Amino acid sequence: MSYHNSIHPTITLQNASYYSSLGGAVRGAPQSSFMIPNRKRVPQSIYHPNDKWRAQTGRLTVHPPIAIDFKGYSRQGMKMSEIYARGSYALSQMMEGADDRVLARTGLKRITLHIRWPGYDSYDHCKWIRSIELNTSSGPITRAELAAAVSQNFYRYFDVIASTPVMDWYLGPKGITFDKLVLVSIINVFEDAWQADVAVDF
């Protein structure tokens, strides 16, 4: 069963993208990987620990990226506002692999989400590091539940940094609003540290 959404045109085989470098997505993957022309990836900095010893001995990118897509639309992402507003049943109908227990075999009990929005990551009050528990009342967290937790964190992040002006990628009523954010994937950048690969519909 595929989910139809009017903002995503049907993909034919000859127009399908086979771009698979999700590990490099946070660093700024080619913009042409999106079917929507005004959708652009956010050029985030990658989390790296300040502790020199940990930085040298820690494990880098242990787990594969977790893609977030509408059913039938590979590597296009989903609007965070859609994910935030929908319940688990609706997401299971809309999202590709929504019920997959994406981190069940990793042995992890929680992950740490780092939001490093360009221009804001240098302000102490704009640093956002939050734990996400991976064991829920129904078992290991699903793709849909993880996407919802990440979207909720971005929604709250907007409240925290709303009054902090920056030159580019400005967040707020006069800049980029939450409803323009697209969650493309969730990427393991260092040990238990994860970041969201985010795009913006301008």
TrEMBL record:
- Write down the superkingdom of origin: Eukaryota
What is the protein's name according to its record? Uncharacterized protein
Give the organism, scientific name. Rhodocollybia butyracea
